Amino acid sequence: MAQQLLTKVTEALDDKKGQHIEVIDVSGKCSFADHIVIVTGSSNRHVKSLAMEVSMVSKKHGLIPLGVEGMDAGEWVLIDLGDTIVHVMQPNIREFYQLEKLWTVETDT
């Protein structure tokens, strides 16, 4: 079910013109999620629209988001889908925080 939802979410983001969609497998790196999806929206309105689409797609598949943060500002919206966390960000916010680098850094063991 989780993989199907992940696929539906990324397809919906692509359909709504989300940019630079990246899916990161964090299953071995953290305990709170298996995947992180990061997508760029071109404006506050676009970010909010993408976030609302993710929420609607998840509800259609029987999963009510556990939490949604940042809808008021529309610069960075986080949608918690349990096993999947979705970050919808404006370009300047995404560039500043560089979440991809945070989650793809390999540790020396």
UniProtKB/TrEMBL annotation:
<comment type="function">
    <text>Functions as a ribosomal silencing factor. Interacts with ribosomal protein uL14 (rplN), blocking formation of intersubunit bridge B8. Prevents association of the 30S and 50S ribosomal subunits and the formation of functional ribosomes, thus repressing translation.</text>
</comment>
<dbReference type="Pfam" id="PF02410">
    <property type="entry name" value="RsfS"/>
</dbReference>
<keyword id="KW-0963">Cytoplasm</keyword>
<keyword id="KW-0810">Translation regulation</keyword>
<dbReference type="InterPro" id="IPR043519">
    <property type="entry name" value="NT_sf"/>
</dbReference>
<dbReference type="InterPro" id="IPR004394">
    <property type="entry name" value="Iojap/RsfS/C7orf30"/>
</dbReference>
<protein>
    <recommendedName>
        <fullName>Ribosomal silencing factor RsfS</fullName>
    </recommendedName>
</protein>
<dbReference type="GO" id="GO:0017148">
    <property type="term" value="P:negative regulation of translation"/>
</dbReference>
<dbReference type="GO" id="GO:0043023">
    <property type="term" value="F:ribosomal large subunit binding"/>
</dbReference>
<dbReference type="GO" id="GO:0042256">
    <property type="term" value="P:cytosolic ribosome assembly"/>
</dbReference>
<comment type="similarity">
    <text>Belongs to the Iojap/RsfS family.</text>
</comment>
<dbReference type="GO" id="GO:0090071">
    <property type="term" value="P:negative regulation of ribosome biogenesis"/>
</dbReference>
<keyword id="KW-0678">Repressor</keyword>
<dbReference type="GO" id="GO:0005737">
    <property type="term" value="C:cytoplasm"/>
</dbReference>
<comment type="subunit">
    <text>Interacts with ribosomal protein uL14 (rplN).</text>
</comment>
